[in-house]
Amino acid sequence: MLRRVNLSPPPPPPGGVRIGRLSLDTDGWRTRWDDLEVSLTLTEFGIVKMLASAPRMVFTRDAIIDRIHGPGFALTDRTIDSHVRNLRAKFAALGAADVIETRAGVGYQMGPCRGGSA
After folding, report:
1. For residue 98, what pLDDT is reported?
2. Helical segments of 1-112, H only
3. Average pLDDT over residues 51-74
4. Longest dimension (CA), the chain
5. Would you say 110 and 52 are in contact if contact means Cβ atoms under 8 Å apart?
6. Domain boundaries, the chain
7. What is the reported pLDDT for 109?
């Protein structure tokens, strides 16, 4: 006899966000890919949280800097690129290459978070 397995993802935690296989506990500052906790820096978590808050929106690098650090904070656009590169490496190690998408000449957007390639 075969048993049916519930393939729907669990709901996000209270105060959290779920997109595909990615879940964020925004109150507890925790990030999970399926059942695996992903260790992120404060800035990395802020970037993922921001992108996940409006998954269809494309955020410019300046908007990311302003939202995470406040207006007028002295960071270059390339600093955000570096954080995104680190995030992609952390998620790629878990088979999740589609978490953050680049919109050429504009900025970054949340990906589908299904675990495929970007």
Report:
1. 95
2. 42-53, 61-69, 77-92
3. 89
4. 63
5. yes
6. 16-110
7. 98
